[in-house]
Amino acid sequence: MPETTPLILGNVTKPGAADRLQRAGEAALKSLDQRTSMHVGQVVGNDIDHVNIDLTGIRIDSVEDFEDFGNRVGEAFRSHGIEERRLDAVHASPGLVKIAEIRAHPVTIFGAPYVLDGALVDVPITWLEDAGGLLAIAIDENRDPLHLTGELSLRVEQDALIDSLHVLVEQISDRDGVPVHVELRQVRFTQDTQRSVRVEASAKVSKGFVSGTAIAKATLELDNDLVFHVRELEITSKNPILSSFLKLAESRLKVKPMRLADLGPLGERIIDVNVTVGDEIEARAVLGDTGR
Length: 292
Fold this sequence. Notes:
By secondary structure, this protein is an alpha+beta fold. The chain contains 5 helices and 18 strands. Helix 1 packs antiparallel against helix 2. It has 2 domains: 7-146, no CATH class; 158-260, Nuclear Transport Factor 2, Chain: A (Roll), CATH 3.10.450. Strands 1, 2, 5, 6, 7, 8, 9, 10, 11, 17 and 18 form an 11-stranded mixed sheet that branches. Strands 12-13-14-15-16 form a 5-stranded antiparallel sheet.
């Protein structure tokens, strides 16, 4: 049985369920931006031949937008008779989404326009039915064997990304309970290797009556085992009082290594990642059989 919480689709046939999914998905996306779209293809046996999702036009301008968007999407699905909850299933039928495509040209996050393109082949799903004929669908991340393959790419202009970081840091600094105020001045990303990026930033940092310029440097790296590391993290300041505080902050900001495989079904299928840094930054991931 899938571990993910299924979407309850109602007392409908599988073709009827696909139609309901499309109408609910369209309504959910249109509540965010009219340029978005979603199309759910035909059901053949237990398979859905395709799902196409276009997120073009969506804007996220604040931390609060994430929660607001989630609420609006949930309300749109519920208004079409679809809800996310557990089901006491008596029948389970495995199937596939033969191809799932997602794009955004662009989706704008904190002012930065990101271009997203992705395609996944053979996404595992399971149809669930309870004793009363209630039908549900869930992603089946435990499918064995799992033949999910695909490719995802995300790109953004470096200057736009840096501008968005200014906006994000300002919003976080202005939140209640944040002990310091940080005003970003300069940020630069440079290519180190095929899977590592060097980040250097300067900022004005204020804590109470103490303020000064801080310099931060770090290398973001994905090793050959697809484990993400933040290496060579260093935060310094010529202000001795601020420097002592930053050293303490530096120790707390150190990030533990993180395996992409721990990010869920998609992370488990990543076999290669490429990062290209220049005027434009692009990250590309390939999914396939990892042999794990």
